[in-house]
Amino acid sequence: MAKQSASTRLSSDASEIRAAVFRLSRRLRQQRAVSDMTDGQFAVLVALTVHGPHTLSALADREGITAPSMNRTVNGLEELGHLTRRENDVDRRKVSIDITESGRAIVEETVRRRDEWLAKVLAGLDADDRVTMRRAAEIIMREIER
C-alpha cells in the first residue's frame, strides 16, 4: 500500500512540475523581439546562432521535423532576410544555410527580453527561493542532458 502511495505522489509531483515548466516556458516564449515569428522559426535561428551553418537536412534532423517542413520554414526566414543559402564550394548539390545579422539581432533581442523578464520574476523572490530555483535549474539540465 505504501508503494502505491509513493507512486501516486510521484505521479502528482510529475504533473505539478510539468504544468509549472510548461507555463514558465509559455511565458518566456511570449517575450520575443518579433511578434509574428513562430517558435519553429525562432528555433532555427537559435540553432544557426549556436551551431553555425547547416544543410537543410541537418537542420531538419536537429529540429526533429521533415525536410519539406524545414524547407518551408527556411523559405520564410530567407524571404524576411534572417538567413541565407549558399552553395557548397566542394559539392554544388549541397546548400549551406546560415543566419544573417538581422536574424542574429532577433535572437539576441529575444534572449535579452526573456532574461530580463525572468530576472524581474527572480527579483521578487527571497534569497532562499532564488537558491531553490537555481538548484532546480541545475537538476533539470542534468536530467535532460542524460
UniProtKB/TrEMBL annotation:
Keywords per UniProt: DNA-binding, Transcription, Transcription regulation
The HTH marR-type domain covers which part of the protein?
Answer: 14-142
User: Pfam families given for it?
Assistant: MarR_2
Q: Does the keyword Repeat apply?
A: no
Q: Which InterPro entries match?
A: HTH-type_Bedaq_tolerance (IPR052526), HTH_MarR-typ (IPR000835), Tscrpt_reg_MarR-type_CS (IPR023187), WH-like_DNA-bd_sf (IPR036388), WH_DNA-bd_sf (IPR036390)
Q: Which GO terms describe its molecular function?
A: DNA binding; DNA-binding transcription factor activity
Designated name of the protein: MarR family transcriptional regulator
Q: Which species is this UniProt entry from?
A: Microbacterium betulae
